[in-house]
Specification:
The protein is 37% helix and 29% strand. It contains 9 helices and 11 strands. The chain has helices at residues 42-49, 80-87, 105-115, 121-134, 150-163, 180-195, 207-213, 231-234, 241-251; strands spanning 2-13, 16-27, 31-35, 57-62, 65-71, 74-77, 90-93, 168-172, 199-203, 216-221, 224-229.
Length: 252
């Protein structure tokens, strides 16, 4: 089953067309990595499918539920209450963590499940502690974000996304704000989640990671999908000149 279906997605900012007819499917349990140079539209695509930006054309389906349909060439979103429910099907992890600075680590993780999902506090606390243990942060529940390294903050951000029990996770360059040592920490967590068959869509510049973990790799440039397919084909044997040039540049 596809957890995400994107058809002919378009997005412009003023006269600048940032996304031109992007279509993509993400199947349950799949890891899809999106590669591409800066300004290729990768992050805008992620912001559109996570509904932080409205789209200008196309349709979006999450877990079989239509969120946006196209009518007379214009996108039509379903009512707010339905959108809210659809939003709970995915979690989003940003490159700059976006933790609440005035909340402890534990409160960062438990606040939304208790307040938004109205779940039992004791149960949520228990799950949050298990998530912290899984992230290697069992002793950090009472800490505040400023007391943690960047890698630890990003692991808290991943735990916070998982606490909402999403069916899939979207990551926007999850390691770009981190040095190499901390990057390795986060990639290890993502590899573990991939082993557990967590459905993930990851915008990344970590080519080796994309090759080893992804079921499917998408290369974007200039607001279009230039090439996509098995990582061994796209990364090791690209058929498009733009893909080859990008990968060569990344290797330098």
């Amino acid at each position: 089953m596809n957890l995400l279906e994107v058809k002919n997605l378009k997005k412009s900012f003023g006269d600048l067309e940032v996304l031109k007819n992007i279509s993509m499917e993400v199947g349950e349990g799949e890891v899809v990595s999106i590669l591409g140079p800066s300004g290729s539209g990768k992050s805008t695509f992620l912001r559109c499918i996570s509904m932080l930006e409205t789209i200008d054309g196309g349709s979006l389906v999450y877990c079989g539920k239509q969120a946006v349909s196209e009518q007379d060439g214009k996108p039509v979103y379903v009512p707010k209450s339905e959108l809210q429910e659809i939003r709970h099907s995915f979690g989003l992890v940003f490159q700059n963590f976006n933790l609440f600075p005035h909340y402890s680590v534990l409160k960062n993780i438990t606040d939304a499940p208790i307040r938004v999902l109205k779940r039992d506090k004791a149960e949520v606390m228990k799950e949050a502690e298990a998530l912290l243990k899984k992230m290697g942060l069992a002793d950090k529940g009472s800490f505040y974000p400023y007391q943690l390294s960047g890698g630890q903050q990003q692991r808290v951000a991943i735990a916070r996304a998982l606490a909402m029990k999403p069916k899939m996770l979207f990551f926007d360059e999850p390691t770009s704000a981190l040095d190499p040592e901390l990057t390795a920490e986060i990639l290890k967590v993502l590899k573990e989640l991939a082993k557990e068959k967590m459905t993930m869509l990851i915008v990344t510049h970590e080519i080796g990671f994309a090759r080893s973990v992804s079921d499917h790799v998408v290369f974007m440039d200039g607001g279009v999908i230039v090439e996509q397919g098995d990582p061994r084909d796209v990364i090791d044997n690209p058929s498009n000149e733009r893909t080859r040039a990008f990968l060569k540049k990344m290797e330098q």
